Amino acid sequence: MNQDQLKELWRETLALPSTAKLDEVATAVIELYSSDSQFGEHIKNRSKRVTNSTGVEFDPNNFGIDAARAFVAHETGFRSWDDLIVAVERPHTTPVL
Questions:
Q1: DSSP-assigned states of every residue in 33-96
Q2: Maximum Cα–Cα distance for the chain, whole Å?
Q3: How many other C-beta atoms are found inside a 10 Å radius of the C-beta of residue 65?
Q4: Alpha-carbon gap, residue 11 to 17, rounded angstroms
Q5: Confidence of residue 97 (pLDDT cuts 50, 70, 90)
Q6: Using an 8 Å Cβ cutoff, are 7 and 25 in contact?
Q7: CA distance 67 to 25
Q8: What is the Cα–Cα distance from 33 to 51, expressed in whole angstroms?
Q9: Which residues contact 83 (CB under 8 A, 6 or more apart)?
Q10: Ramachandran area for residue 46 (φ above 0: left; ψ -120 to 50: alpha; else beta)
């Protein structure tokens, strides 16, 4: 996975969001974090804002699924992964972007 592929996955996911696609994005964020130093720095630079918004602590040496999901939720305007998933599963109650 590279940054262009992640951007395309984001576009596809936002066009037709689903829990499975959002999990795929979170997994791709983890993969790219560990393989692309520029992307890793981008995540580290945003970590304080994401932690303040979502309450999920960021450990740069152990970037796992909880942190990746927090970043995905934050990037889509939600305070938590659970709030994002509820919005996707009940699309008539809360719009996703």
A1: HHH-HHHHHHHHHHHHHHHHHH-----TTS--HHHHHHHHHHHTT-SSHHHHHHHHHSTTTS--
A2: 39
A3: 13
A4: 10
A5: low
A6: no
A7: 12
A8: 17
A9: 73, 94
A10: alpha
pLDDT tens profile 34-88: 999 999 999 999 999 999 999 999 898 899 999 999 999 999 999 999 999 999 9
Pair 50, 56: CB distance under 8 Å: yes
| Of 33, 38, 35, nearest in space to 72 by CA | 33
Residues in the chain: 97
For residue 28, the 8-state DSSP code is H
Tokens standing for residue 49:
């804002």
- Tell me the residue type at 85: I
